């Protein structure tokens, strides 16, 4: 393929990637989950501290009285209640806020409050409970079940955040629905009256929809969305083939200058976060861990040194490269790579628009995720049960994310070593291409 045709293909692909990355709803979800992630990391730290370090049956139980450790764990449990148990409420607020930003709508607080109110309208305030020593469950009313405010209600939160905010903004921008007040009116009062009718219409509309669904299908909105949308999508996106496909496409887009989070974030993050939270809850309750693939699993095994597991490329350059300029780029990139920041090597070497290196950039994570998946399934390493910051250095990340399993750290070392040889032949090709272009 001649250079001109190649450049045209790269340019067109880049335009498509840019357009997709700027799609308003995908951008809103990406930004919302970025805002939400610190709460997930806090919950991850609490899980690690409570159920690894402060575990009464663990090593600390031999140093400190187990009853004292159980009492101290209450601090972490309260933090979990304020993070994991209200995941959906946090998501509703974050999605609504970023939708306002995307739509350039200034009354953020009104939109966020409308979305939270709408979410509660759609949530059944009852649950089934089996009392101690009883054989029959009874219905308890007047409460909002944690199953709806936690991770399992996340998709209702996403839909409410998007749809309720969209409707509210559209109604609010209609001047015919604004109540005009005259006189010396405080700005806060004026704003509240301007959105009074849009609030009434939005919340009431969703209440009617919820009532209709309940009457027609004898189920609430959460159950309906889970049945027809969340369940099937979750099996596709967090099953190994679908997960690898989306991750690979996202890395391919990164090879054309569009950050992989733009693609994988909206498609994967809701499912990965839900799986992560269910794993953390199961780990805290000493139950069987339900999921292999989750948010920290991706970060631990597919972002070693940054997207594309580029720490392996840096090692390949340091050991095998014959080009001084490549080694100079690698020296500049190594410090960020320790904390999984790959942009210096991606844009500096570059990997972007460089087909020789885009190929292993996509292949290396496929290899690492597949190996880690089957190692977990076989019981060779523990499941990933702790949400760690994505900037946690490789090897340390494997140890922490699996609740202190040294085998996961060793597996990371082996995967990095193998990935060096995935990158190596493509690095050789790239060096020859660069040398030939320099001689022209």
TrEMBL record:
<keyword id="KW-1003">Cell membrane</keyword>
<dbReference type="GO" id="GO:1901264">
    <property type="term" value="P:carbohydrate derivative transport"/>
</dbReference>
<dbReference type="InterPro" id="IPR004796">
    <property type="entry name" value="PTS_IIC_cello"/>
</dbReference>
<keyword id="KW-0813">Transport</keyword>
<dbReference type="Pfam" id="PF02378">
    <property type="entry name" value="PTS_EIIC"/>
</dbReference>
<keyword id="KW-0812">Transmembrane</keyword>
<dbReference type="GO" id="GO:0008982">
    <property type="term" value="F:protein-N(PI)-phosphohistidine-sugar phosphotransferase activity"/>
</dbReference>
<feature type="transmembrane region" description="Helical">
    <location>
        <begin position="109"/>
        <end position="129"/>
    </location>
</feature>
<protein>
    <recommendedName>
        <fullName>Permease IIC component</fullName>
    </recommendedName>
</protein>
<dbReference type="InterPro" id="IPR004501">
    <property type="entry name" value="PTS_EIIC_3"/>
</dbReference>
<feature type="transmembrane region" description="Helical">
    <location>
        <begin position="149"/>
        <end position="169"/>
    </location>
</feature>
<dbReference type="InterPro" id="IPR051088">
    <property type="entry name" value="PTS_Sugar-EIIC/EIIB"/>
</dbReference>
<feature type="transmembrane region" description="Helical">
    <location>
        <begin position="32"/>
        <end position="53"/>
    </location>
</feature>
<feature type="transmembrane region" description="Helical">
    <location>
        <begin position="410"/>
        <end position="427"/>
    </location>
</feature>
<feature type="transmembrane region" description="Helical">
    <location>
        <begin position="79"/>
        <end position="97"/>
    </location>
</feature>
<dbReference type="GO" id="GO:0009401">
    <property type="term" value="P:phosphoenolpyruvate-dependent sugar phosphotransferase system"/>
</dbReference>
<keyword id="KW-0762">Sugar transport</keyword>
<dbReference type="GO" id="GO:0005886">
    <property type="term" value="C:plasma membrane"/>
</dbReference>
<dbReference type="InterPro" id="IPR003352">
    <property type="entry name" value="PTS_EIIC"/>
</dbReference>
<keyword id="KW-0472">Membrane</keyword>
<feature type="transmembrane region" description="Helical">
    <location>
        <begin position="341"/>
        <end position="364"/>
    </location>
</feature>
<feature type="transmembrane region" description="Helical">
    <location>
        <begin position="301"/>
        <end position="321"/>
    </location>
</feature>
<feature type="transmembrane region" description="Helical">
    <location>
        <begin position="189"/>
        <end position="213"/>
    </location>
</feature>
<feature type="domain" description="PTS EIIC type-3">
    <location>
        <begin position="9"/>
        <end position="426"/>
    </location>
</feature>
<feature type="transmembrane region" description="Helical">
    <location>
        <begin position="233"/>
        <end position="254"/>
    </location>
</feature>
<comment type="function">
    <text>The phosphoenolpyruvate-dependent sugar phosphotransferase system (PTS), a major carbohydrate active -transport system, catalyzes the phosphorylation of incoming sugar substrates concomitant with their translocation across the cell membrane.</text>
</comment>
<keyword id="KW-1133">Transmembrane helix</keyword>
